[in-house]
């Protein structure tokens, strides 16, 4: 239990006697895996996935499944939940193993296979030791096959964010293992990705080994997000949440492709803001502040991750905005400023056309807003550029880049 979530009183006046706002903040933690009765709005997906894994429960092979959906759509949660339930529901005499691999972390074939072997191996049953490092990939495969056959009739392997895996061999070898006579245990793979083209990009051999069914997770709508949050209301003390807090957090998250993680984040953050504020209740204004904060974080990530030329273009617009009463500037003016910046930083100067494309890209990402102005038949159409965020914040973020920093030394 975290200090924040303690609801018991404390005698020492140096410390507060329990949290005013949260009673169990853990329920709103990023990595928190909710219990079955807190999973909302995914009954259909749960039933469909269960159907694919059904064979395992009766001692036959489970099917492979590819799950697609945007971030925060509950793909990992549902996969873990259903495989866990399959394991618990196994018929007498049938033994099912489950393992979850985050391919963002274990992104090479060797890491994934050694991680699988280590997670699935119960040394007390198999008498096998799986070293963390030091073996060749093929040795790790051998250990994995041995440990599977020593323990299970079938195993359900979740490969989350599979598109981040460096190569596809692991998918091919796992899907072929039984057919190739390497193991008696059958393997069902649940591969998860938010890139819909993932399968098309696989080479033909991998695709033909990984025979699978597909499952699509739609983004949550505002009502579902509301329900997901309402189901965790007990993270807060009784009566602390004002009525409009959950609906507003849901509305914000629904705007962002229905991301449940985002909804829960806003809710937790709103509670933290209310606490910092010394408020007795979490109110609408706290949610708005939490949302603004999240926006800034997202924005910082966007700017930090932008290519150097894009940063120089944004810095040009920033300089004009900071040093003038206006907030919108014609592209030609921004370009002049951009040229000065490039000269100072000894960078290549892109053509006006490329420069315009960069600004368009930034507009697409929501960093800049571009407005067309019609200057009459003689003047033609001109583009005006405006920063969406506070120019001081943008400037500060761009100057975090070591190359750009020299500009501030002007
Ligand atoms: N249906 C739901 N009911 C309750 N909580 C949910 C639900 N869906 C998602 N969540 C919450 O949102 C968080 C994000 O969900 P999850 O990790 O499953 O999303 P994902 O689709 O796998 O996203 P990503 O692609 O980013 O990994 C989960 O930890 C869970 O707390």
Automatic annotation (TrEMBL):
InterPro entries: AAA+_ATPase, AAA_16, Cdc6_C, Cdc6_lid, ORC1/CDC6, Orc1/Cdc6_arc, P-loop_NTPase, WH-like_DNA-bd_sf. It comes from Natronorubrum thiooxidans. This is ORC1-type DNA replication protein. Belongs to the CDC6/cdc18 family. The lineage of its organism: Archaea, Methanobacteriati, Methanobacteriota, Stenosarchaea group, Halobacteria. HAMAP family: ORC1_type_DNA_replic_protein (MF_01407). One of its GO terms (molecular function) is ATP binding. The keyword Lyase does not apply. Residues 314-398 form the Cdc6 C-terminal domain.
């Amino acid at each position: 239990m975290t200090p924040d979530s303690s609801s018991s009183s404390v005698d020492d006046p140096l410390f507060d006697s329990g949290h005013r706002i949260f009673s169990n903040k853990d329920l709103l933690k990023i990595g928190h895996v909710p219990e079955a009765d807190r999973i909302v709005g995914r009954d259909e997906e749960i039933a469909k996935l269960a159907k694919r894994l059904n064979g395992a429960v009766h001692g036959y092979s489970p099917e492979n499944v590819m799950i697609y959906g945007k971030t925060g759509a509950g793909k990992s949660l549902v996969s873990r939940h259903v495989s866990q339930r399959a394991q618990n529901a196994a018929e007498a005499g049938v033994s099912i193993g489950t393992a979850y691999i985050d391919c963002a972390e274990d992104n090479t074939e060797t890491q994934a296979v050694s991680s699988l072997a280590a997670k699935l191996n119960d040394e007390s049953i198999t008498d096998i030791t799986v070293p963390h490092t030091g073996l060749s990939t093929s040795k790790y495969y051998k250990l994995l096959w041995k440990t599977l056959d020593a323990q299970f009739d079938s195993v359900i392997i979740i490969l989350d964010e599979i598109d981040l895996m460096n190569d596809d061999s692991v998918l091919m070898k796992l899907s072929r293992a039984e057919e190739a006579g390497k193991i008696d245990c059958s393997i069902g793979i649940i591969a998860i990705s938010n890139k819909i083209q993932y399968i098309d990009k696989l080479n033909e051999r991998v695709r033909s080994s990984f025979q699978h069914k597909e499952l699509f997770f739609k983004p949550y709508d505002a009502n579902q997000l509301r329900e997901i949050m309402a189901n965790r209301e007990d993270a807060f003390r009784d009566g602390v949440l004002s009525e409009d807090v959950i609906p507003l957090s849901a509305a914000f998250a629904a705007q962002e492709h229905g991301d449940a993680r985002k909804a829960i984040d806003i809710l937790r953050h709103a509670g933290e803001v209310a606490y910092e504020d010394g408020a007795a209740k979490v109110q609408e204004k706290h949610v708005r502040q939490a949302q603004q904060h999240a926006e800034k974080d997202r924005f910082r990530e966007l700017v930090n991750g932008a290519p150097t030329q894009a940063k120089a273009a944004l810095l040009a617009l920033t300089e004009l905005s900071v040093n003038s009463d206006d907030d919108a500037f014609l592209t030609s003016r921004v370009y002049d400023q951009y040229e000065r910046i490039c000269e100072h930083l000894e960078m290549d100067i892109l053509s006006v056309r490329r420069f315009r494309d960069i600004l368009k890209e930034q507009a697409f990402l929501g960093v800049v807003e571009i407005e067309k102005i019609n200057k009459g038949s003689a003047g033609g159409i001109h583009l005006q550029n405006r920063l969406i965020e506070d120019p001081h914040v943008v400037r500060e973020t761009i100057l975090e880049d070591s190359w750009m920093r020299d500009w501030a030394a002007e």
